[in-house]
Structure formats: C-alpha cells, structure tokens
Please model this.
Amino acid sequence: MNQSIGAPDGTEVLTGVTVRALRGVRLIGGTLADIGIADGHVVDGVPDTAGVDLDATGWRVLPAACEPHAHLDKALTAARMDPGTGNDLMSAITSWREIVTAVDAADIAARALMAVRRYTARGITTIRTHVDIPQTGDPMRGIDALVALRERLRGRVTLQVCVLAGSDVPDAQIAEAIRRGADVIGGCPHLAPDPHHEVTRALDAAQRHGLPVDLHADEQTDVTLADDALDLTDLAEQVLRRRLPQRITASHCVRLGALPPERLDPVLALVARAGIGIVTLPITNLYLQGRDTTHLVPRGLAAVRRILDAGIPLAAGADNLRDPFNPAGRADPFETTSLLMTAGHLRGEEALAAITTGARTVLGLPAAGTDVGDVADLMLVPDGDLGDVLAGAEDARIVLTGGRVVADTRVRRTLDIPERQV
Model:
C-alpha cells in the first residue's frame, strides 16, 4: 500500500502504521533516497513484506533521539513547589524530599507516562531513567512503577531503569531493586560522606549482577579537590583494575569544565583508557550550578569539546523535566542540541551525534539510522535547513520505532505577515 505522508503542516495521522519503505526522503547528507525496512531494521532495497510505503517528499530523515538521563519519577512536579523558588543542587534535593513523602506508585506511573508521551512526540525513542529509592514510605514504589511502564511501552519506547541509590540506601534495597527488574546500577558519590565507598559498592554490585553502571559524578564546579579525589578518577581507576566488561557511564561531570587543561587532560586520558562514556546535561546544570557566584558565573557544563577530542563517547540529554531540579524544559532533544552549540560550542553535527549515535553508544544500544542493518528508530523532520532543526525551530516530527510510527506531530501556522519583500 502506498501512502503520502503529506506536508509538515498537513493533518495526516500515521500513528501505529508499520512502514515498509520511506520513499523520496532526504538523508542527512542531502541526497534523496528510498529506505527499506523489515523486521525493525533498515534493509537493502524495498522488502517484499507487509507494511506501508510512505511518500516522504518534503521530509528529512534522522536517527531517532535518545534521552540518556531522565528522572521520570520526579517529572512534572514543578507545580508542587513554591513557584518563586530558585534551587541550587542541595535545595532542589530538599524540595524533592518534601514532595516525595506524598508521592505513591500510581502518581509516579501517571506522571512518567505523561513525560514519555512528550519525549516520544519530540523524537525520542529511548530513555534511561534514574529512579530514587526513598527512605520514607515504600522504597520500591518508583522502581515498581517504572519497571511496569517499561514493559507496557516495549516495542514503542525503550526504557532503561537505573537504580539511583544515595548513600542512605542500604545494600539490601539496591539488591531488591535489581531483583524487581532494574537494568542499570547508579548512585551519587559526589553527595556522599565517603565518595570512594559509593563508587566501590556500585561497582561491586555491577560485578555481582552483571549490570552496567551509570553514576552521577562530580556534579560541582569548584576546583578545590585534588584530582585524585574526583569521582571520575576513582571510577576509571577501579574499572581498569577490575577489568569490567559492562558499560560504565559517568553523568554530569560538570567539574571537568572547571579544570584547567593541565589538570583536565590526564583525567580525560584515564577515562578514555577505561572506556567510560560521559553524559552531559546542559539545561539542568546551567540551572543548578553557579548560584552563589557574583560574577563570571561558571557554565555548569562538562568540557564537551575536550571530551570529544579525547575520544570519549559523549551523550547529551536534558536530565530533569519540570521538577525542583529544572522547572523548565520541553522534553525536546533539539533543546539540548541548541544548548550544546551555544553553551558548549559544539558544531551542529557533533551536537546531533550527542543525542543520537553517541547516546546510543553510551547506552549500549545497537546503531540506529539509515545504513543497512541499522535499527529503524528514525525521526522525520521538515526538509529545510538542518540548522533550524538543531536550533529547535521546527516542531513537526514523525517518529518511528523499529519501523512502526509511534508519533506524528504536524504544525499549522498562519501569519498576517507577508512572506516576501515586495
């Protein structure tokens, strides 16, 4: 069956359709092509299988985006706090601990689903969510809610559930969260009285259970600590010593952006040898960091340029979505690319890679894109200036997971302003 997608401002609704081929779509490099899809992957030629051939004239195809670091248990709770509050990291933690006492599993599940719908509509088909183990009420309520949501969304959105274990969380509760289905082991060594202990117990758990690790690391901009006291240095040294085969990730790492080159470069060389991936989270760290600084306010951003130059896999995300840690944000990967270009000074293609191919590498996922064999997690955007897309100026998107259309957003705009100079 042949079907036209129609224009970005049209009204076609394609959700739920299984696509056999995208015809006449523009690739990232600028050429027009037909893309065949079978069994959830890109194939050579148009397959003789069931599905719809879509005329994608007027659209450009990109790999679908990832959100490599979310907090779905906290998402969309900003309205529950004082609207005049401006939080740094510690006050945001305090605000969340006040909110979470009244939060149950049903509350988490409902808000998480609302957030996932926002992410997916904007081109994101994979989300790694860190999940607290609260020490008030049922400690497993977030884990249970998000593991259940992961299964409900299977085939539409890939959800990875990461245990976010603070230093107050007993080892037995971490083990229980893993038993209930958590995919990744996480923690916050930079907030602990003994950061080395937190790194060590996370890696111990990873070795016992064979799971990947994703730690909140060095989420501060001061440079008063010695380099060997960095969470990232400790993590890399332990990973090398233990020869861990699983994926190890360090998220935030904003302290790297505050180190001078002579201190930064040896740290990055060590991280590269250890094979650790880094996740940078510009919008939340720009919001949280530097509030006590009177001038020359630090950016609160990892040293993304030097991370890439060191050959370290880099992913980028938005972190929090309208909660005490970030009252703004629109669940849009192109909000992240815009910030990577403006605050991180990355080139457009590097910013795009950080939310797509680079993010999938850090998350341990197979490649997605338009090459034969790639997973057919794809995003169609209007076929105009790619810079407009990366700047967040285009809202129309069609999103595919394994060749299935999971989101279709069109934007109709009318203006009482002339199009051209007379």
Notes: Residues 105-121 form the longest helix (17 residues). The longest strand covers residues 124-132. Residues 184 and 211 are 6 Å apart (CA to CA).
